[in-house]
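### Sample
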Amino acid sequence: MHFTTEHEALRRTARQFVESEINPYILEWEQAGQFPIHDVFKKMGSLGLLGICKPEENGGLGLDLSYNLVVAEEFGRSIAGGVAMAMGVQTDMATPALARFGSKELRDMFLTPAIAGDYVGAIAVSEAHAGSDVAAIKTAARKDGDEYIINGSKMWITNGGQADFFCLLANTSDDKPHRNKSLIVVPSHLKGVSTSKPLHKLGMHSTNTAQVFFDDVRVPQRYLIGNEGAGFAMQMMQFQEERLWVCANALGSLDLCLEQTIQYTRERTTFGQPVINNQYVHFRFAELATEIEALRALTYHAAELHGTGKDVTMLASMAKLKAGRLLREVTDSCLQYWGGNGFMWDNVASQLFRDTRVASIAGGTDEIMLGIITKTMDMLSKP
């Protein structure tokens, strides 16, 4: 993937934002269990960071995916993953279908303020019994006049307790599971919408994650995104860009973790010499750096092909699988080289060890990725 001077200018803007507006406040936000998302998003919006691939008519920059991945990579250099996760939900999970298939009215009402940072969005797909198995969701929207009446609940919703609107996947008919689902924009202020207390997670503490309940929520049918029954297909399409975003974001986290660990082992002396002088240690760093570059090449290749309009389902799934596993390997290895300091809560390696573990679960588990790869390789036995 070729990066232009425009890419690099955007990279500098994103990195400066992370260094000045996010990293200095991470400890405070982690302890609070959330960050001031509307304030931070407003600053991001003023810099154009929330609408990189979105239509210019809605305040976006109208650029291609490669620019978005540059920003995702830089936000991966946040000391904690929560803010980047919240941003990724806003830009690459809650709004892509809205931008691509939503009516002008819907885009004006919800996409434009989301790009400006005035609205916070959340994607409401997973349910307690249906995480990666999207077809099994039970939340339903039935027609009543010119409205939908929505009942159900959604689980593990990032930005859930702070969102202004949800991009909700719900069953709108009794058709087959892949043809009975629709995406509907649901404002959070509507009667019948409520959220749980923030869920207590292993990591990502600075991001508000909640269960969301819909109890006889009335929504105008014009809040439907695209065509009724096309929700599953749109969600699957959305997943591919989401997974590439996750991979690019992982690259930033991997680089940060390895860089800071190398620096620490240069400064930390044991038995009269720096830790990095042990051959095993610096050989291990060489191995990890090689793995990171392999992931970078795969991610960039998939993104480049996506930009030409090609189906990258297999490559995006491969990259997502590799990213999740490599995050576990690199953060665990690096944590070890910090010794006792690595077991401390506010250490960069332990922070990323906790925060990035979700990469092998959210957006499709490793096992789901393996299943997709198998199917796209046509390896399944046929009757």
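The chain has three domains: 5-120, 122-228, 233-376. This sample (Acyl-CoA dehydrogenase) is used throughout the tutorial notebook.
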